Amino acid sequence: MPQPEFWAGRRVLLTGHTGFKGSWLSLWLLQLGAEVWGYALQPEPGRSLFSELGLDQGQLHHRLGDLRDLEALQQAVQEAQPEVVLHLAAQPLVRRSYRDPLGTWATNVQGSLHLLEALKPLQHPCAVVIVTTDKVYANREWDYGYREDDRLGGHDPYSASKAAAELAIASWRASFCGPGGYQTPHLVIATARAGNVLGGGDWAEDRIVPDAMRSLAGGEAIPVRSPQATRPWQHVLEPLGGYLLLAERLAAAGGGPGHPYADAFNFGPVLEANRPVRELVEAALKHWPGEWQDLSDPAAPHEAGRLHLQIDKAHNQLGWRPRWDFATTVGRTVAWYRAVHEGASALDCCLADLEAYRQELTYAG
Predict the structure, then answer these.
(1) Which residues of the chain have pLDDT under 70?
(2) Predicted TM-score (pTM) of this structure
(3) Does 203 reside within a domain?
(4) 36 with 11: CB under 8 angstroms?
């Protein structure tokens, strides 16, 4: 469980704070008492969880900027002087990566290196957690999960760009973290691999839950592109809790070569939550009745069919494990959207989920 005594007053730079996961993490960090500096693009057009939570009203230090702008990143780092960096900013959509491959690669690879370069001048310890994705592995459509030392790869530009980012980050860490004259002893860097998160407030294009919730709210059938594709579904609070815990461990262990947590970690769900998209949609319809239609297109851009993660490393080394099963994850997600559709406050719904998750952590711990 994230420790409030660690985060209270802690200076945190959070990139991508205007996105779906970034908005949830901003709220959680503020609840923990952290001083949050955000760096991100404007929220996507249309509905925005960031705005619905009122995070643009001065609760955090809100800076707009692009990862591809090194000078702007350097200014943001100098202003924040972070003790912890949580790097979530990215171009995160597979189908968009086919439309804009160069922008995807520039943001996800070069943007991450820009951030690390901007952190070099810091003169105090800083724990850095860089979020990539569960799609960094060379997908062989296996029935069993990928481990952190499995081969990296990616068919689509998004997956490949994130795998390339993992390689670039590992090279940067090996080259520039240490006591040498060309190195910095202050930074400790880990990567976190998670994806296919569910939860209230995701309004992105081409994601099954936002598409489903928009359809149900409009009384339309849910369009399903890949009903047989299997994914490791988890509530957004699960990996976010993992990122916070990993940052705590990085900071506590100090810097220097051979850092025990400066490595890659998978944050995935329990095994039974690896389900086909069809089962996810049918589970959602139990909480908000409606229909779905199969829009499978053999000519559509390639996306992985099967994807599972092994999470033994995070459990054994960090003491982390997922708390909500598939039914709870889907139930709480659909309940959030339906409540907000019927007039409830997005902030109240998010705080209720956070409190329920805290209670689950406290009880299970």
Answers:
(1) 142, 254-258, 297-306, 361-365
(2) 0.93
(3) no
(4) no
User: Rg of the chain over CA atoms, in angstroms?
Assistant: 19
Assigned domain for 357 exists: no
Angstrom CA distances, 187 to 72, 201, 205, 284, stand at 20, 33, 35, 43
In a domain, 339, yes or no: no
DSSP 43: P
Q: Give the phi and the psi of residue 186 in degrees, each rounded to 5.
A: -90, -25
CA 131 to chain centre: 6
Q: What are phi and psi of 307, to 5 degrees?
A: -155, 115
Please report whether residue 127 resides in a domain.
yes
CATH of the domain at 252: 3.40.50.720
| Range(s) of the domain holding residue 148 | 4-197+234-271+306-324
293 beta partners? 223
Provide the pairing of β-strand 84-87 with 11-15: parallel
d(CA 150, CA 166): 12
The number of domains in the chain is: 1
- Cβ proximity of 184 and 125 under 8 Å: no
Residue 181 identity: G
**pLDDT (tens digit, 9 = 90+) per residue, 25-79?**
999 999 999 999 999 999 888 899 999 999 988 889 999 999 999 999 999 999 9
**What pLDDT is stored for residue 196 in this prediction?**
85
Cα–Cα distances (Å) from 301 to 106, 116, 153, 276, 290, in that order, read 21, 32, 17, 19, 28
* pLDDT at residue 152, as a whole number: 94
CB 266, CB 147: distance < 8 Å: yes
Closest CA to 336 of 55, 20, 3: 20
Query: Taking Cα atoms as reference points, which of 193, 199, 192, 194 lies closest to residue 49?
Result: 199
**C-alpha closest to that of 322 among 250, 260, 271:** 271
Say how far apart CA 174 and CA 185 lie, in whole Å. Answer: 12
Contact 167, 175 (CB under 8 A): no
DSSP category for residue 44: P
